[in-house]
Design goal:
The complex is a heterodimer of chains A (329) and B (291). By secondary structure, chain A is mainly α. Chain A contains 15 helices and 2 strands. In chain B, a hairpin with a 2-residue loop joins strand 9 and strand 10. Chain B is globular. Classes of the chains: A mainly alpha (329), B alpha/beta (291). Chain B: InterPro entries: AAA+_ATPase, ABC_AA/LPS_Transport, ABC_transporter-like_ATP-bd, ABC_transporter-like_CS, BCA_ABC_TP_C, P-loop_NTPase.
């Protein structure tokens, strides 16, 4: 494998369905953290309920896929309310702890034996995408695109819908944040007591954001279900949330396109480092490593890149350095 | 200091006929508090039997460190929960209301540690103060024609206020780039955006460059002169004596004295409270009074 092939393959992944799904989930996280300052460390929990909304509706009850999306979104609303009502009046760290714990508990519940009639436990759910693919305007087996950017009809359909949703919610974010509502939200990020003293119901605003961002995360989870056609609880480990945080900080928190650029660059780096390590390994340059080590080394390598980024460009790729430099206290 | 004398003489007019005793009834109170209590563990931080604040005056709340001034502020404005007690504002009971509800009813507060929203522009800080904005509702936000006109009117009003507080040149700067004194001015201007009938200032002079103090004082008196009520906590005795119409002295959570500045200066109990607390500032101000 030469370096050009690795670059081409990485570029292809960077615009692929997975990058789109992560970009969408990170848009939700951007609303939470980037604009409102809510520390949500459990975005994967919202993705999980979204994915299983589709999974259970389609896979177990044979309902139309659109119903699955609605169920997933409704679950996200319930989850956001359950998380928000007890914690949003408290200090920010309570939400952080609750979300990370809740997301992990959800995963354990969905994979538990007693949930098997609905979730099929650790075996997960299969055959989830036939409804979605039945409205695919592209030929499933054909290849579309040009040069290295060619995808199967099925993948292209997922990409069109997911990137479409990314565009839609980026636009929604832009519109909300350029309105008086967004001004209140940014004010809450700076100092919620000040905003409260000006007669704004801070709790209600935070709840609105938690619900909206959670629903966007659930939508990303639902797209994941129809993209993969099969889901399994163990895909929704805390690691996914941390990838989303890395994406958000990489791109630039509090920027409309931060999550989008972050996701593209993140998945490019993930694939490029992976491809590079494997290529070096197969050429015999890494004699002290065997196949399974590459994954770990690759993650460490991406982590190192992120650390370097935080040190030299703390505002992210498209963040505003001037804003970062102002002392928040 | 002839300007000080005029304000003091004006002050005596405003509170004419009110006896300088704790808990005294005022002719036209805007705020009436009864039995307000709050303790932290075993410590009784606030225990105010009866307190009235006269409409259209500048009332100062003073007391040694730890007297419960800020706690009382937080309680009255809904930023802390009382153990017991009732208070009414403009004749309507507001105890148990949350901070934002109290602010909406026309009683707005500032903070001891200035809370400028640092990573937002000065103008955005101001616009946050405007009440009843259609665009602040989530659904309304997406329909720009629904709030564009209101936004223009609010911006106009904000710029007028910024002009008055001499911040208009800074309107597009981040609030975090302002100096401490300018932040105090911004906070005051922002609270005026809510069109309050009563303004609660928590240590408005703390951390302000002495050169700005006079300007801040004139802004505070101008608030009263346009018919608003001001209640403020302050440490600087010269400031308090200069601009207050009425002074309420707290010690260990209780109102131990109230009266005009001239009454308070000579009040034995007040002097004892300050001396008893071994407060450096208080000792200084007492020396000032003697001299």
């Amino acid at each position: 494998m030469d370096i050009l092939t690795i670059l081409a393959e990485s570029a292809r992944t960077a615009v692929g369905p997975v990058a789109a799904i992560y970009a969408l989930a990170a848009i939700g996280l951007n609303l939470h953290f980037g604009y409102t300052g809510l520390l949500n460390f459990g975005q994967v929990g919202f993705m999980l309920v979204g994915a299983y909304g589709v999974g259970i509706s389609v896979g177990v009850f044979d309902l139309p896929v659109l119903v699955g999306f609605v169920v997933g979104l409704a679950c996200a609303v319930v989850l956001a309310l359950l998380l928000g009502i007890p914690t949003l009046r408290l200090r920010a760290d309570y939400l952080a702890i609750s979300t990370i714990a809740t997301a992990e508990v959800l995963r354990l519940v969905y994979r538990a034996g007693f949930a098997e009639p609905l979730t099929n436990g650790v075996y997960g759910l299969q055959n989830l995408s036939s409804g979605f693919r039945s409205v695919n305007p592209f030929e499933a087996a054909d290849r579309y695109g040009f040069g290295v950017f060619n995808f199967s009809g099925n993948h292209l359909w997922v990409m069109v819908v997911t990137w479409g949703l990314v565009g839609l919610f980026a636009l929604l974010t832009w519109m909300l944040m350029h309105s008086p509502w967004g001004r209140v939200i940014k004010g809450i990020r700076e100092d919620e007591d000040a905003v409260r003293s000006l007669g704004k119901n801070v709790f209600a605003y935070k709840m609105q954001v938690l619900v909206l961002g959670g629903m966007i995360g659930a939508l990303a989870g639902a797209m994941m279900a129809v993209h993969q056609a099969a889901i399994n609880p163990d895909q929704f480990k805390p690691q996914v949330t941390f990838f989303l945080w890395a994406i958000l900080l990489l791109g630039g928190a509090g920027r409309v396109l931060g999550p989008v650029i972050g996701s593209v660059v993140f998945w490019f780096l993930m694939n490029f480092t992976d491809g590079l390590l494997r290529a070096l390994g197969s050429e015999g340059y890494l004699p002290f490593l065997s196949g399974p080590d590459f994954g770990a080394i690759q993650l460490a390598f991406v982590g190192l890149l992120l650390v370097v980024l935080i040190v030299f460009r703390p505002q992210g790729l498209i963040g505003d350095r001037k804003e970062m430099l102002i002392n928040v206290k | 200091m002839s300007s000080d004398e005029t304000t003091v003489s004006g002050a005596e007019d405003r509170m004419a006929g009110v006896e300088p005793v704790p808990g005294v009834a005022k002719p036209d109170p805007i705020l009436v508090a009864n039995g307000v209590r709050r303790s932290f563990g075993g410590l009784k931080a606030v225990d105010v039997g009866h307190l009235e604040v006269q409409r259209g005056t500048i009332t100062a709340l003073i007391g040694p460190n730890g007297a419960g001034k800020s706690t009382l502020f937080n309680l009255l404005t809904g930023f802390d929960r009382v153990d017991e007690g009732r208070w009414s504002f403009e004749g309507a009971a507001i105890n148990g209301r949350r901070g934002h509800q109290v602010a909406r009813s026309g009683m707005v507060r500032t903070f001891q540690l200035t809370k400028a929203l640092t990573r937002m522009s000065v103008l955005d800080n101001m616009l946050l103060g405007a009440q009843g904005q259609f665009g602040e509702r989530m659904a309304g936000a997406l329909w720009r024609p629904g709030w564009a006109r209101q936004e223009r009117a609010n911006t106009e009003r904000a710029l007028e206020l910024l002009e008055r507080f001499r911040l208009v040149d800074k309107r597009d700067d981040m609030a975090g780039s302002l100096s401490g004194g300018q932040r105090k001015l911004l906070e005051m201007a922002r609270s005026l955006m809510t069109e309050p009938s009563m303004i609660m200032l928590d240590e408005p002079m703390a951390g302000v460059n002495p050169a700005l103090v006079q300007s801040l004082l004139s802004h505070i008196t101008s608030l009263r002169d346009e018919g608003r009520t001001v209640l403020f906590v302050e440490h600087d005795m010269d400031v308090i004596m200069g601009i207050s119409d009425w002074i309420v002295v707290l010690a260990q959570g209780r109102v131990i004295a109230e009266g005009r500045p001239s009454d308070i200066k000579s009040d034995k109990q007040v002097i004892d409270a300050y001396l008893g607390a071994q407060d450096d500032e208080a000792a200084e101000s007492r020396e000032g009074d003697d001299g």
